[in-house]
Amino acid sequence: MSSVCWGIFFNREIIRHRWLNKNNQAIVTDTAKGIAKNYSQIQADTHEAFLAKLLAMEEAREINHKSLLLKQAQFDVLKTFGDFRFEKMSIPNSIDVGVLKTASFVDKKGNLILYGSVGLGKTHLATAIGVEACNRGKRVRFFRTSSFVNQLLDAKTEGSLRRFFKQLSKTDLIICDEWRFIPFEEEGAQLLFQVISECYERKSLIITTNLEFSKWNGIFYDEKLTSAIIDRIIHHSHLIVFEGTSSRLENSMIKSK
Ligand SMILES: Nc1ncnc2c1ncn2[C@@H]1O[C@H](COP(=O)(O)OP(=O)(O)OP(=O)(O)O)[C@@H](O)[C@H]1O
Ligand SMILES: [Mg+2]
């Protein structure tokens, strides 16, 4: 069969085997779309060779796509669930380890607040979830909150704030690491509030912090702004509280024996 005939065959099969989502609506997967787009470039003498090339091409396309998503996420350090121990944290009933490991709360535009003192794995967990989300084809952006605010202020000064917001609007998950008191100007606080408002019920947010809500006034100066931010963030949020001794301290080479 020529590649054109195979193409017709694949297109027909893709249409025939459309997946059904939970509302029984037909969905065509990215893989199916990729196959439909790329089959015509394949040269092969036999059916088997055609199929092997098609699958290899599709696999390479998926790997490239995931690598691009990981690069765009701009994680500080790459961390995964491979070496993560689910300890020193209380996970609320509204969520479970499976949901965290599959980052499936992102599909529901859920938020996570990872709260606790230093060295307990908040950044590791947030990053591992972000990496898994990329693996599942989601667009993620990782920011240290202070640098995020500086980027927002710079974008405003340079007149590129609209473009910056447009890029953010394409993400599925925004991670604000180290959400704590930072001496940024009031304008920075307002820009951060704008981001939170834009995210509300449209995308997922993960915040890591060691500041309890009652101290968030210190971040945002203004009590009304703080209440408005907390209100938006905690709606659809799962709060994971970390407690215990810092893993940095436990693993420190200079700890006392
Ligand atoms: N549960 C865990 N499983 C595996 N490694 C962990 C765990 N908790 C912490 N670590 C490791 O300990 C170090 C500190 O963790 P991490 O940076 O995530 O802490 P943190 O809670 O974000 O601290 P901080 O509040 O100072 O930012 C990292 O190298 C991390 O990989
Ligand atoms: Mg951290």
Describe the structure.
This protein is an alpha/beta fold. It folds into 2 domains: 3-68, no CATH class; 81-251, P-loop containing nucleotide triphosphate hydrolases (Rossmann fold). The protein is 50% helix and 13% strand. The protein is built from 11 helices and 8 strands. The protein has helices at residues 3-16, 30-38, 47-73, 97-102, 122-135, 145-158, 161-169, 186-199, 217-220, 223-234, 247-251, and strands at residues 19-20, 26-27, 89-90, 111-116, 140-144, 173-177, 204-209, 237-242. Strand 1 (19-20) and strand 2 (26-27) form a beta hairpin. Helix 2 crosses helix 3 (47-73). The longest helix has 27 residues, at 47-73. It starts with a helix and ends in a 6-residue tail after the last helix. Residues 14-22 have low confidence and may be disordered. The structure holds adenosine-5'-triphosphate (ATP) and magnesium ion. Adenosine-5'-triphosphate binds at residues 79, 83-85, 87, 118-124, 178, 208, 210, 247-248.
